[in-house]
Every structure is written in C-alpha cells, then in structure tokens.
Amino acid sequence: MQKTNKTSLHDLITPKRCLLAAFLFFLLMVCVGAIPGKAMAASNVVSDKLLHFTAYSILSVLLYCGMNGTRLNRGLRTFLLIGVLGGLDEVIQSFLPYRNFSRLDWEINMLAAAICVSFLMLLHPTYTSLVKSRRQEKRGEQARRTGPFSNDKS
C-alpha cells in the first residue's frame, strides 16, 4: 500500500512561519516606504490610511498566529507589538527627507490591530476546537493504519 502524503493548511501554517512572515512583511513595508516616490505613487492609487489599515491588519494576523499562550495574552502582546512596530515605521519615515512622521498613521495602525486582534480573539475558541478535532481524526487514522493486525511496514 502506498502512503498518501496529505498536508493540511494547519500543518503548513506554524507559529514560527507566521513570525517569519510577519518579520519579512514588516521589512518589506519599511523598504518599499523608503523608496523615493513609491509610497506617494501608492497613495495616489489607494488612500494612505487604507494602505496603513490593510498592512497592519495583515501584520496583526501574522503576529497573533505566531504567538503562543492564552488568547488574551496573545492579543495584548500583538497589540503592543503593533504599537512598537508602527511607531518604529513612523520614526524611520521621519528621517527620510521625502517622508514625514504622522501620528494619524500610527493611530490607524493601532485601530487595525485592535479590530483584528478582537476578531481573532473571538474566533480563537472555534479555531482551536476545530484543530483539536482534526488532530484526533488524524490520530485515529494513524491508529487504524498501524493497528495490531496491520501488514503495512512503510
């Protein structure tokens, strides 16, 4: 019998990968924002505030999924980290001659984090129960395959 290699989305999305993606995403945001004219060109297509809201929403999701602990603990740490990263982003912009520090941008970042973290904290119990049931199903399948009367040695 040939063993099927079924990988679920949950197996691919690990906390370490989420934190790595968050780090790379933040680095990409800062680098693109530092290119002269790129931030202004993007702001001409889509509102600057919508760009901040979207980017920091994505960053919030990645950070929350990359952390361990209770949902309150994860939510607070994510919210605080977004505050620090958003502030760092604005401070970096203040050193660029063609950019400036904007407190409103930082506030939009925090609003995005608050909304996303609240939503994730509400979904967290549903998600964890789904993951637990899938793990139990997976263990049941493995137990049936490798039961006492199994001839499969793969």
Structural write-up:
This protein has 154 residues and is an all-alpha fold. It has six helices and no strands. It is elongated.
Provide key terms for this protein:
about 150 residues, mainly alpha, 6 helices, about 75% helix
Question: What's the SSE blueprint?
Answer:
Blueprint: H1 9-12, H2 15-34, H3 38-45, H4 48-66, H5 71-94, H6 103-145
Helix pairs in contact: 2-4, 2-5, 4-5, 4-6, 5-6
Shape: elongated
Summarize model confidence as the mean pLDDT.
85
Order of helices and strands: HHHHHH
The computed structural class is: mainly alpha
State Rg: 21 Å
Number of helices: 6
Q: Please count the beta strands (DSSP E, at least 2 residues each).
A: 0
Note the main sheet: none
Share in helix: over 70%
Q: Could you tell me how far the N terminus lies from the C terminus, measured between alpha carbons in angstroms?
A: 8 Å
What percent strand?
Answer: under 5%
Low-confidence stretches: none
